[in-house]
Structure formats: C-alpha cells, structure tokens
Amino acid sequence: MNTELQLAGDDYQEPIEHVEYDFGLNRRSFVQFLSTGLLILANAAPALGQRREGGRGQRRISNVGARIHLGKDGSITVLTGKVEAGQGARAELTMAAAEELCVLPGAIQLLMADTALVPDDGITAGSRSTPSTVPAVRQAAATARNMLVQFAAKTWNVDSKGLQVRDGKVLQPGSEKSLGYGDLAVNEEALGEFSKSTPSADGLTARTDWKNLGKPLARPNGRDIVTGKHVYPSDIVRPGMLYGKVLRAPSFGAKLVSIDPAPAKALKDVIVVEDDSFTGVAAPTTAIAEQALDALSKTAKWDVSPHPASSALYDYLKEHAQGGVPPNPFSEETGHAKQVLKQTYKVAYAQHAPLEPRAAVAEWSDEGLTVWTGTQNPFGCRGELSRAFHVPEERVRVVVPDFGAGYGGKHSGEAGIEAARLAKAAGRPVSLRWTRAEEFTWAYFRPAALIEIEASLDERGKLTSWHFININSGGSAIDTPYNAGKARSRFVNSDAPLRQGSYRGLAATANNFARECFMDELASAAAADPLDFRLAHLQNPRLRAVLETAAQRFNWKDCVRKKSPNGGVGLACGTEKGSYVAACAEITIENGTISVRRVCAVFECGAILNPANLHSQVQGALIMGLGPALREQVQFENGTITTASFRKYPVPRFADVPEFDIHLLDRPDLESAGAGETPIIAIAPAIANAVFHATGKRIRQMPIQLSEV
Amino acid sequence: METKITFSVNGQPRTITTDPQRSLLEVLREDLHLTGTKYGCGEGQCRACTVLADGKSIASCTTSVGDVDKQSILTIEGLAQGERLHPVQEAFLAEGAFQCGYCTAGMIMQAVEILNTDPKLAKTDLAARMQRHICRCGTYPKILKAIQRAAV
C-alpha cells in the first residue's frame, strides 16, 4: 500500500490509501467477458437523452449541460460526482440547485456518483462538498436560469429585464405568458445553447433572497430509507449474480505458500480463483461461499512474518520516526522562561466501523466493467479498477448508491476490485460483502499518534515559546491558533504498523487533543482559569466567539467553583477546515469509570445552509467522538487485530449519550465551510480536562481511562 | 441436508427448501430479495438485522432459518400499509432520525415491538431498551425522540 495526495476540492488534498492488486491480462484466469448488453442502473436513473457536451467524468466542467439535464417532460436532473453517505450532500446540493433554478427542491432529481454520467467533483472528503461543490452547482444552476430567461425574452421578443422566474417558470408581469424548463428542452436550438453555456457567478441569488438555502431540508430519499426500499451497495442484485468470499491471511504480512483448491471446487456450483496474491470463491449463496472458503483455508499453508504489537506501539512509533524527533529550537526562550513544561500525549488507533461494511457488485459485459460500491472516491476507484485489470478508464463504470457511511474510511475500493476479479472468472455478476471482522481488520485505521509538546511561560503567565511534534498521525490542525510566542509545529512520519488513512477530522483530533490538554496544564502552571488562559492567548475572533458562547451557555465559571465530589468540568476549542468548535463537558466518575453527563458544544461554519442536517452532523460527530475519547482502541498482536468485533471494540451506544446543548452560530456574512468533521475535535480534550478537574490527575492518552494513571 | 421450511413473511405464506442452518438474514436477503434488513456484524451485536418473529424482535443474523419454521416474520418491507406508512416510520421521517440510514430498519422494527408490547416503555426506559442497537452516525437522541413521537 502506498499513500498519495488527491484533490478533494479546489485547494484541498486528502491522503488516499491505494489498493495494490494487479491482475495482468496474460494471467491464467483470463476469461471472456460475459455479454449482457446495455448496462442498466440498479437504482432508477433518468434516461439522459439530452446531447451531452462532454462533462462525463470531467474535472472543472466547462458547460452547464454536464451539470444539469433538462427533460422534455419538464424534469430537471442535476449531476454530481459527490456521494451521499449520511453526511447530507444529497439534500444540500439539491437545495443549492433549487435555489438558483428557482424551483422547489422536490422538482429536482440529484444523480450522484455514477462515473458514466456525472462530472468528477473530486473525492467526497475534507469537508469540501460545501465550499467547492455547492458553489459549482449554484453557478451552473444560476446560468441555467439565466438561459431560461433569455430564451423567454427571445421567444416573446421582449426585454429580459422585466421578466421574473417563479417555481421554474418565466413570467411576464401583466401577461398570462409563461415558459418553463421543459419548453426550453423541446427547442433543439435553445437546448444546444443551454448545454454549451459556461457556468458563471452572474446572477447568483443574494443571501438575503435565499428561499431554500438556510432553511432545513430533510433527506430527499428519506422515505426509501424508512421503508427499506433504498438499495445500498450491499443490497444490489443483478441477474445470475453469485456471492463472493475472499481468503484472508491469518496475520498481516503472511504469504500464502500452498493451497489445495480441490475440496472447495468439489462443492456444487463453486468457482475458485487464484491469481497473484488473491484467492477467492464465488457461489450461489453466501452460505455455500462460506463453506468453500472454509474448505480452502483448511488447506492453506502460510509463511508468517513478525509484526509489532499494540502493547509496544508508542515506543515503536518513536523508534521509527523518520529522521528522528526534531529538537526544540527555542532554547533561548526556554532558558529564560519562568516555567518550562514538556509532556507526551498518546492517541490509539481507531476504526471507522461504518455500519455497512465494504460491499460491491461487479459485472463484466461487452461494454466493459461496471461496479456498484460504497466509496467516497468513485473516480479514484475507477482508476484503481482500470489499473488492476488493465482496462481503459472509459470502459470502467463505478456507480455509488447512497451507502452506509464512511467517516473518511471508504476512500478505497478493495471490495470492488475483489468482486470484479471473481466476476471475471465466474462470467457472472458477483456480490462481495465484507464481514464485520474483515472491515475491522483489512480496512484502514485512523493513525495512532505520539505527540510531544514543550512550551515556556514568562513571569506574567504568557506563553513565550511552543514546540509541537506529531509522530505518525498527520498534520491536520497542527498549528496552534494561540499566540504562543515563538512557535513551531511539525509532523514526523513513522513506520506505521497498521494500514492507516483518513478519518473524520483526520489528525486534527489527535493534535487538538494534545494541544488543548496541554493548554490546560499550562493554565494550571500559570495559576489561571483554563478559559481565561485561552482567551488571553487567543486573537481569532471566530474561535473566541465559539469558546465564549460555549462557556457562557454552560455557565463555566459557576461549574468550576461548584465542583461535585465525584465530578468535574472541562473545556476545549479548536479550528480546522474553516470551521470553529468549542465544547464544555461535565463528567462524573464512579468505580473508576468516566461518564459524560452534559455537553455544551458551539459550532460555527459561516453561513448555515441546512440547519437540520448541520445539527445532526454536529451531534453525530460529538457522539462518535465519545468512542475514541473513552473506550475505542484498536489492539493488535502477532499481526492480528484482537479487537475485530463490536464486543471488543465498544462504539458509543444509547446509554453513552449525554445531555446536549448544541448551539450553531450562524454567520450569514461569511462563506459556508464544511461541517462533517471539525465538530469531533473538541470533545475528547474537554473530557480529559474535566477528569483533571474531578481527580487532579492528568490523563495524557486517548482513550482517556483512569486505569492508565 | 436441505429441509423444507414453511413460514409467513410480511403476511405472505412462503415455502423454501434450503439448508436450515443458513441465517434468516441471508435467506430474507438472498432467496426472498428482501434487502431492507441489513447485515451489520453477524453476531447480534449491532441489531441492524432486527426483524419480528411472531411479534418478538430477533437478530436475524444469528437466527437459523430452521428456527423460524412455522413462524410469522415481519420485516421493514411489511410495515407500511400500501402508501400509508407505519407511525414509527412517519416519526423517523418527521424527526430526521437517521443519517446514513443503514441502522434504520433495525431501529424501526425494535421500536415497533416496544410500542406493540409495552408502549409505556417508550416514556421511561427507552434508551435502555434500545441499548443493543448501534447507530454509528450518532443519531441516538433523534431516534429516541422519533420513538416517543410515535408513542403519543
């Protein structure tokens, strides 16, 4: 596996974990493609009859036709390469288009992430859908509306200035005349002009005139979710489809020495594939596929190799820090300081554990390869498939139905490649659904972190220097937002023992945990209240606003004074990807177990586009954040994940939910930033700081557990 | 070792001949193409696979299809009456009680059992009663609100 950076928006890069399968065309299992004729979408899709001026899979689309399709029946289809994984892109992009087209959201069908039809809007990651794709959709839609107005002006031979657009119709005040998008679509010449026109910001609806954006919109396909009709990737069924299973190594790095496929092949209707490092089976039912896999694995001989254990993780990361750990260059400041503090923080590996494990259906035909799968990176997966099978990208189609969550954990397309390999051998479509244990073992992990910080304070309790080193987990939100005097923050790569990749907020959680816990330690050293100490070093008005609002709503100063015998309060704040969060937490401790009782969180991401969804995302991120804060840690030994089930990897459940006061600060004067990630970064340090308030003990590790003291 | 199993699914009598050890979840999804019921863990730890068997909620991933012979199974697909949604479905929509929605079928089926058997629970011990279910998106507070809304 290797990691590279891939664009997720105009100016943001996301680390991508690559999948290194290579099934050469000269390999022995090459089979004829099964001819199934035209590929048909599993989900109902519109027939896109409108002539398309390029745009399929195009980056930075240059014409409205690649983004918006007008049906002769008046239907409107908006196309995007972004995916819906529960984060709310479907509602948000529908609202954006409805706003500018001047139609009701219900009049729009949003077609997402089918690489044969949609423009490439980049990977769905890095909180980029809101700042990059919403403007792109709005510009195309505003241009489309302007084209409709021009069309009406020309048709009626009037000045376009006097015309209005309402509910998808151009109206001329004082007359009964009206023209809609369907009327434009039936006019060949007008439609041609429409499709070729270049999206521009001309005529974008001013914020004060918004009718859709800024108001809550429920998920457009919500009814299909509650009735069980929505087809997730793991639900796709194709004619003649088989169910696949892949033989996994017993431990990381183990190499297959020998295997006897005969007992598996002896089972009825079972196909066995051995190719390169890949061994798998396909069968008419999952139960038969499991029997075949069992038969195979009983004959498999493996050559295992040593692998570090999680019990020695942090020593291992430090020993393998590339180029060593850089020394603190601020010896002059630390030499003259009243106080110098130095601490080390540890953050365990975490797993995304999306409730739908990786799943894909692959089907080969004369047209090439089609894969339906749950990935945040449809065009990236198309590239992976193209490389793995030596098939040109034009002959690979990746379709991403709305899927069962990713949280940054589904940037890769392993299941799609594996299903495609099996389907190629079987000459039939194959569905491959990873088990929970496979997802816990063979997906990638949120990187563990070892963070060392050293800072100096003068006699007035002011920071004079700050040296921050993150080993292994990444550079997101690594720079301190505080005035810390001379400051340097660096990320140092290490030899990661596990396959690691993105996660909600990436390394921002680890970096903010260490920084915000350390700020509390510095506040204690300076004999200052943690809130006052932060504010004294903080200029950014947006970060100050969320912190001050949270403290006020939580009644911070009173809570600190009225400490209960077995409880405490803590706070933290942070910023990343253009949004701002602060959290205050109240905890109690009984028999060594920390319970989070009450959380006040304030979040600001500029102008709020969909307040209902934003609330769900913020609350969801806070609840998800409780897991690695308190309990979740991936453990491993002898190359095996020893926490590969929900029994051993206890994610948050109903009883873990504290009393919430979630406040969303709306800033209609500012551009909207994404919001799916940053709300997660303040909850863990707020809890750790509350544990100190309750016990006087500093827990410098995630998960925060008292047994570690 | 194939056995004939006769049961009712969403009010329809069904007879299938299969290995009785296969999970009910697999048979619902692969043989009957009722894919609304989800696999989440395969060991009854997340309850995305919850269905009702003779009115009682069960984890269909750890239930052998042979064990529900002669029983009456209700899945998410059988809840609405034509176009009319079940009150719990309506409530989940009204509260926006899902994000990715993958746990939703299991949550709704569990809520239906609670409201059918002990509607008072919806007011008191609801979180404890739902404790076996995982929503990885963290929509728990809205799910509780939805169930309470349906209980009114």
Largest pleated sheet of chain B: 5 strands, mixed
Mean pLDDT of chain A: 92
Number of strands of chain B: 5
Q: What does the radius of gyration of chain A come to?
A: 27 Å
Please tally the helical runs of chain B, counting DSSP H or I stretches of 4 or more residues.
Answer: 5
| Pair of chains with the largest interface and how many residues each contributes | A-B, 56 and 56 residues
Structure report:
The complex is a heterodimer of chains A (709) and B (152). Chain A is α+β, with helices and mostly antiparallel strands. Chain A is built from 18 helices and 28 strands. Helices cover 29% and strands 22% of the residues of chain A. Chain A has a seven-stranded mixed sheet, sandwiched between helices. Chain A is globular. By secondary structure, chain B is α+β, with helices and mostly antiparallel strands. Helix content of chain B is 31%, strand content 16%. Chain B has a five-stranded mixed sheet, with helices on one face. In chain B, strand 3 and strand 4 form a beta hairpin. In chain B, helix 2 crosses helix 5. Chains A and B meet through helix 5 and helix 17 of A and helix 1, helix 2, helix 3 and helix 5 of B.
Features of the shown structure:
A: 709 residues; alpha+beta; globular; B: 152 residues; 5 strands
Structure, briefly:
Chain A is of the alpha+beta class and 709 residues long. Chain A contains 18 helices and 28 strands.
Note the topology:
The complex is a heterodimer of chains A (709) and B (152).
Chain A: E1 3-7, E2 13-17, E3 68-70, E4 76-80, H1 89-101, E5 108-112, H2 129-156, E6 164-166, E7 169-171, E8 178-180, H3 181-186, H4 188-196, H5 222-227, E9 242-246, E10 255-258, H6 262-265, E11 271-275, E12 278-283, H7 286-299, E13 301-303, H8 313-319, H9 331-336, E14 339-347, E15 359-365, E16 368-373, H10 378-389, E17 396-399, H11 414-426, E18 430-433, H12 436-442, E19 449-457, E20 463-471, E21 486-492, H13 508-525, H14 530-536, H15 541-554, H16 556-561, E22 567-576, E23 579-590, E24 593-604, H17 611-630, E25 636-637, E26 640-641, E27 659-665, H18 683-695, E28 701-702
Parallel strand pairs in A: 4-5, 9-18, 14-28, 16-17, 20-21, 24-27
Antiparallel strand pairs in A: 1-2, 3-4, 6-7, 7-8, 9-12, 10-13, 11-12, 14-19, 15-16, 15-18, 19-20, 22-23, 23-24, 25-26
Helix pairs in contact in A: 1-2, 10-11, 13-14, 13-18, 17-18
Chain B: E1 3-9, E2 12-18, H1 24-31, E3 50-53, E4 56-59, E5 72-74, H2 87-95, H3 104-117, H4 126-129, H5 140-151
Parallel strand pairs in B: 1-5
Antiparallel strand pairs in B: 1-2, 3-4, 3-5
